[in-house]
Specification:
Layout (H helix, E strand, L loop, with lengths): L1 H69 L11 H7 L3 H6 L1 H13 L3 H14 L4 H16 L11 H10 L9 H20 L2 H16 L1
Helix pairs in contact: 1-6, 4-5, 5-6, 5-8
């Protein structure tokens, strides 16, 4: 009995000595794993997040810049001459040919709450001048959101056929994505708004002012 008790005590002491070492080793291994995970999260995940966030900020900034450029307050142009203003009465094409003519017509459209027609036409003209693929895609998206979407307060009036064409073209936007729509709005302004512009106070006052200056000279 005495020898058996001694043997059991030796085994207990041996087990007790081994256990702290094993536990310490396991704790050390666990710490290394924890630190490794922490290192991966800090250096990999956070960098990925920063990269994505920077890309989003850059995309948003570009979008805002393009949007601001797409709605000019007024085209820069010299004051129209009496000859130019008289030519506007000859045809709608001559009116739309010069910045001064477009500015005067746009001022009239604003009084009729249809300025979006001119803004859309001008945005399409600007899109045709682009050659950079990413800029074309971004400008096409802005034009769609501003003038084609039924949710936009500046939505232009287009028939269903033209809208279907635009939706197909938006799958791969190009400089000519809105050509059919631009022609339809041009025709609408020509037939509907242009005759009223020619009889408006805006046009008549401008014509009279230039005529008086011509007489005085």
């Amino acid at each position: 009995m005495g020898s058996e008790r001694m043997e059991m005590r030796k085994r207990q002491m041996s087990t007790t000595q081994e256990t702290p070492g094993a536990a310490q080793a396991q704790h050390s291994t666990g710490n290394r794993g924890s630190n490794a995970c922490c290192f991966c999260w800090c250096c990999c995940c956070s960098c990925s997040c920063l990269t994505v966030r920077n890309q989003d900020e850059e995309r948003t900034r570009t979008s805002h810049e393009l949007q601001a450029e797409s709605i000019p307050n007024c085209e820069e142009s010299p004051a129209p001459t009496l000859e130019e203003v008289n030519a506007w009465a000859q045809s709608f094409d001559k009116l739309m040919l010069t910045p001064a003519g477009r500015n005067a017509f746009r001022e009239f459209l604003r009084t009729e709450f249809s300025e979006e027609n001119m803004l859309f036409w001008m945005a399409c003209e600007e899109l045709k001048q682009e050659s950079n693929k990413s800029v074309i895609e971004e400008k096409a998206r802005l034009i769609y959101e501003d003038y084609i979407s039924i949710l936009s307060p500046k939505e232009v009036s287009l028939d269903s056929r033209v809208r279907e064409v635009i939706n197909r073209n938006m799958l791969e936007p190009s400089q000519h994505t809105f050509d059919d729509a631009q022609l339809q709005i041009y025709t609408l302004m020509h037939r509907d708004s242009y005759p009223r512009f020619m009889n408006s106070a805006i046009y008549k006052d401008l014509l009279r002012s230039l005529s008086e200056k011509s007489i005085e000279a």
